Amino acid sequence: MKKVWQAAWLLKAITFIGLTTLSDDDTSSNVQRLCYKAKYTIREALLKSLNMCDKGLMTTAVYVYPTWVCDAVKALKAPGCTIPVASMPTGFPAGQTHLKTVLEEIILAVENGVTEIDVVINRTLVQTDQREALCDEICQFHKACGESHLKVILATGELGFLTHVYKASMIAMMAGSDFIKISTGKETVNATFPVAIVMLRAIRDFFWKTGNKVGFKPAGGIRSDKDSLACLSLVKEELGDEWLMPELFRIGASTLVSDIKRQIYHHVTGR
Ligand SMILES: *[C@@H]1O[C@H](CO)[C@@H](O)[C@H](O)[C@H]1NC(C)=O
Ligand SMILES: *[C@@H]1O[C@H](CO)[C@@H](O)[C@H](O)[C@H]1NC(C)=O
Hints:
Layout: H1 2-14, E1 18-21, H2 28-39, H3 44-49, E2 61-64, H4 69-75, E3 85-87, H5 99-111, E4 116-120, H6 123-127, H7 131-145, E5 149-153, H8 162-174, E6 179-181, H9 193-210, E7 215-217, H10 225-239, H11 256-269
Parallel strand pairs: 1-2, 2-3, 3-4, 4-5, 5-6, 6-7
Helix pairs in contact: 1-11, 5-7, 7-8, 8-9, 9-10
This protein binds 2-acetamido-2-deoxy-beta-D-glucopyranose (NAG) (2 copies).
């Protein structure tokens, strides 16, 4: 029984994970391969034995650098394929790029068909408590995104205190962010449980105050299937089942997909 339960949760976890290629040497064929993997994450034979063939089980997004957006959009164009292309404009992960450049790149990426933008904040604004400036920065990201979804990366490993994490979360949500994301995965401190809980409580407080549901994305250093299940249950505990959908919950851990695939293979074949 326990094993069946676990396989079901692992399959669910797949639908919250995006596949990423953010390498210095990305090429068009790299990107196409990634898009193929995103569409056919779990082999059909395995899905058949789990009775999941018709459930449209796919990973939830494809992340590429802005240069490769057009290739990814093209590669994902297929009947029935709803996987969005996501991108992070210049400034990822350091947040040291001029705001104007970042905004221009967001606009260009959106024109090219990106429907999700992950953008880092200027950490100094949080560390020095410049709330209005932070709010203004994120409002401008939001405006540049237009209809595309904005995910604000708080890079919490560099914010110092948990009170900073809470404040930055609130400001990001007030400024129109659709998601708040823990980390770029490149900081020396990545996703931690205390930070995750503070952000989840901020999301809950924001929902109680405004009625708006904002999404949560733990990322950085989530490597095992156990980590991903822990994230799932944390969100379930703090926010409830209604948050367990790709519009409100993502796990930033593309390396995890192969681990989960292995586990599912093992579950089905016993090998
Ligand atoms: C980040 O904020 C600080 C403090 O206001 C500012 O001095 C710095 O120029 C900002 N960095 C960028 C890249 O805009
Ligand atoms: C944070 O995540 C990155 C990428 O997964 C990894 O290289 C780094 O070692 C992690 N840091 C910690 C402290 O786990």
